[in-house]
C-alpha cells in the first residue's frame, strides 16, 4: 500500500516521512534504504527517491559505503561515545562562553519553550527535532558560522542517539526540559563554571543511559 505524504513539495515530504520513520525506529538500524524500494513504496520517481536518500545521508541519518545501498547506521558503543565526545567539546565550551557574556538569544528561549510544549507528547521525531533546535539555537547565539557548521554536522548525526533514548524510554522529555532549564539559568546568571558543568552532565546523563541500554 502506498504511503500518503503531507502537502508540500514531493521531495521535502518524502524526506520528512523517511526521517520520521527512521527516528521512530520504524526503519530499523542496519536496514537498507534503496532507490527502488523508496520509489515503489512512495510512488515517486527514482530520481526523487535518490535525491531524498542523499539528503538523509548528508544529515547522518543514513550512511552509504562504496558500491552499497544506503543504510540506517548501527549504533554501537564506539559510535555513541565518539558522538557525545565531539558534541561535548563544542557545546560545553560554548555554554561557558555564553555564560561569560550572559548571552541568551530570543531564538534560544523560544526553542526551549517549544521543547517544553512537545515534551508532553509522544512523537519521537518532534521531540528530537525540538531538542536539536534548542542546542542549535544556543550555539548559533555565538554568531560563528564555522562553529555552527561544525556543530550542525555532529548534532544531525546524534539525532539517532536522541531518538534511541526516546524509543527505549531511557530519559523522559520532561527531565530533559529541566536539564535545559539548568543550562539556561547558568548562562543567564553568568556562572561560567556552572554552565560548563551542567552542560557536560546533561550530555553524560543521556550517554550513560544509552550505553547501559546498548550493553544489555
From TrEMBL:
<dbReference type="GO" id="GO:0003677">
    <property type="term" value="F:DNA binding"/>
</dbReference>
<dbReference type="InterPro" id="IPR011711">
    <property type="entry name" value="GntR_C"/>
</dbReference>
<keyword id="KW-0238">DNA-binding</keyword>
<dbReference type="Pfam" id="PF07729">
    <property type="entry name" value="FCD"/>
</dbReference>
<feature type="domain" description="GntR C-terminal">
    <location>
        <begin position="82"/>
        <end position="205"/>
    </location>
</feature>
<dbReference type="InterPro" id="IPR036388">
    <property type="entry name" value="WH-like_DNA-bd_sf"/>
</dbReference>
<protein>
    <submittedName>
        <fullName>GntR family transcriptional regulator</fullName>
    </submittedName>
</protein>
<dbReference type="GO" id="GO:0003700">
    <property type="term" value="F:DNA-binding transcription factor activity"/>
</dbReference>
<dbReference type="InterPro" id="IPR008920">
    <property type="entry name" value="TF_FadR/GntR_C"/>
</dbReference>
<dbReference type="InterPro" id="IPR000524">
    <property type="entry name" value="Tscrpt_reg_HTH_GntR"/>
</dbReference>
<dbReference type="Pfam" id="PF00392">
    <property type="entry name" value="GntR"/>
</dbReference>
<keyword id="KW-0805">Transcription regulation</keyword>
<dbReference type="InterPro" id="IPR036390">
    <property type="entry name" value="WH_DNA-bd_sf"/>
</dbReference>
<keyword id="KW-0804">Transcription</keyword>
Amino acid at each position: 500500500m502506498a504511503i500518503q505524504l503531507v502537502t508540500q513539495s514531493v521531495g521535502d515530504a518524502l524526506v520528512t516521512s523517511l526521517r520520521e520513520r527512521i527516528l521512530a525506529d520504524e526503519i530499523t538500524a542496519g536496514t537498507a534504504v534503496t532507490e527502488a524500494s523508496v520509489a515503489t513504496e512512495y510512488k515517486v520517481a527514482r530520481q526523487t527517491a535518490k535525491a531524498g536518500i542523499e539528503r538523509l545521508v548528508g544529515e547522518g541519518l543514513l550512511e552509504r559505503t562504496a558500491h552499497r545501498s544506503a543504510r540506517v547506521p548501527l549504533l554501537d558503543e564506539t559510535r555513541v561515545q565518539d558522538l557525545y565526545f565531539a558534541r561535548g567539546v563544542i557545546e560545553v565550551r560554548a555554554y561557558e562562553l555564553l555564560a561569560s557574556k550572559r548571552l541568551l538569544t530570543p531564538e534560544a528561549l523560544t526553542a526551549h519553550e517549544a521543547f517544553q510544549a512537545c515534551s508532553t507528547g509522544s512523537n519521537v521525531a518532534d521531540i528530537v527535532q525540538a531538542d536539536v533546535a534548542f542546542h542549535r539555537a544556543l550555539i548559533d547565539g555565538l554568531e560563528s558560522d564555522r562553529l555552527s557548521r561544525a556543530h550542525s554536522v555532529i548534532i544531525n548525526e546524534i539525532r539517532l542517539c536522541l531518538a534511541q533514548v526516546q524509543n527505549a524510554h531511557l530519559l523522559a522529555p520532561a527531565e530533559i526540559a529541566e536539564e535545559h532549564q539548568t543550562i539556561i539559568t547558568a548562562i543567564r546568571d553568568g556562572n561560567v563554571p556552572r554552565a560548563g558543568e551542567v552542560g557536560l552532565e546533561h550530555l553524560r546523563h543521556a550517554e550513560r543511559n544509552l550505553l547501559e541500554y546498548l550493553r544489555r
